[in-house]
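Researcher: Good morning. I'm working through a list of sequences from a screen, and I'd like to move beyond sequence-only analysis. For each chain I'm collecting a predicted structure so we can compare shapes side by side. This is the next one on the list. No need for commentary yet; just the structure.
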Amino acid sequence: MYQQLRTLWVAPLLLTPIYSPSSQADTQLAPLMVSATRSEQVNPLIPASIQVIDRQQIERSAANNLLQLLNGQSGIQISSLVGDGSQAVVDMRGFGPTAGANTLILVDGRRLNNSGDRANPDLNSIDLRRVERIEIVQGSAGTLFGNQAVGGMINIITRVPEKLSGQVSAGVGSDHHTNLHLGIGNQLDNGLSYNLSAQQKKSDNYREQNEIERTDLNLRADYRHRLGKLFLEQQWIDDEQENPGSLFAEELAADRRQSAAPYDGDYSNTESSVSRLGVSQDLNDQWSLEGELTYRKNEREFQNSFRTFPGSPATQDRTVKSFNPRLIGSLSLPTGDALITAGADLERTDYELRTSFGPQILDQSIDAIYLQLLAPVNEETTLTLGYRHARVDNQIETGSGSDRLDDRVDAASAGLNYTPNKQLRLFLRADENYRFATVDEHTNVVFGQPVGIDNQTGRSYESGIEWQQGQLTTQLLVYRLDLEQEISFDASGFVNTNLEETRRRGASLEAQWQVTEQLSLDGSLSYTDPEITDGPFKGNRIPMVASRSAKLAGHWQFTSAWNLFMEGVFSSERVVSGDFNNTLETLPGYGVLNTGSHFRTGPWHASLRIDNLLDKQYANSAAAGFDSTFTQRVGYFPAPERNFWMTVNYLIE
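Model: Good morning. Structure tokens for this chain:
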């Protein structure tokens, strides 16, 4: 009966609008998804927009990193400090500088975000060669995923080998970029499968004082048996980077590639490891048990300088342990079988930062329980209800003493999904969300003393319509997100602050059209209105959020082996990071053209990607800062001009 339940939630392919029509023509099988229910289900009918980027789309985009792949996707804005993906932040629903703590990034359900401190998720830890698909859930997911799933969440699903195969890959690119990759995987007759890969990347990058060298090792082993499976995951990363800092306008005009003298010697060297053990076990025909135990450790040495005073070597160590059990099963109702997901998220973080300003030490525990019900109302309508209770306990020590900061929060959600026929879907959803303040938000950045930041709470409302007619698929999504005590950073006073009330209203429209068997087009247009609605900054815009963004892309499949891809990505102007008064010059809007091609013959794969084809000079990120006279200025992070990546893969099957 449980297996029957898995096939009950079959929806039209329009549920996943980022699937191109050409992809739909290749297969009519509805894809598996895990992000909607935290378990594998076939197109669960939840009241939300779920976009899926599949393996075919990843390959034909010729993307070298996650930044290139996600840039311009509907509802997503990306800020990048150096342009290679290593210091990039994914923003959903318009959070700007704090997007890394309000957009949840997962790999096979494992968090990349940090609950204890503000360090952004390491997007370059994701090797696209290992990715099977990417699931993007637009809007708040506070009841199912909890802390930091405020604007949306992205779940990267890695590949599982089906037979003995190997891969050797070499890539070169602009600014002495090199990438070497080796991988091997197999699925044995006894139920055991494994996937082992190693990668090394080196680059001078676009600017001076910006060399990187990175080594990644990944191991995944699965054992499938009659009633479930076990898996073991291990990852090691050694990442060394030089940091070029920002440029003032006159420096940018003189030489976009330079690094200003105060940043000489700035660097970040990080060693990371992740160990994870997971289980999926059928208990009977209706119920199954799933869970993961994760241990993550990061050790970092770095130096960050300011224009007004030089930096000095510092250390940052973080250990995160988590346990995530859940029960998934069915409940018989008069209208049909309902899907129930009940679980707990338990996390422990030990964090220690030591700089010339003194220590920041955190001992944090976050415990949460949640429940989600997905139930049919009738043949056309499904109802979703959710609830979560979470508690955070913080023991913080600084150079000025210690403090204990604890809190509890409840979140609930409700939504309806209506599918009257195979061509049309409508949904409506309300979801409560929250974000716990981190140790570097609880304490003053410069002086280290606790300042009593409140935890952030909010409510999200959204509705959408998806429609498919022949070879045309469209989606319209509108939303409103109201937050209380939004956590942010005021650069004018070097202080963390709570914005009393903020509001985001927006809409996105996207469409895909299969023009011919060989040619497909897709495009999106997004509008975001992020406003501070109470407090001293009332009426001002949230920094680093573009009010309008758009993308237009085309894909031409010359033959079954060769394709050409081209996209234009556009963004309107933005208030610079930290400028809550909205008084400094804004970051100008931009439009760039990217292209790529992928070719396959036998075991050989080759791809070429050219970004910023028209060689536009622009900055993707900017922040309020101070010069040597303590005058407030705007510091820009110039994006690379025309640049390319070329990769050749040899597959052994």
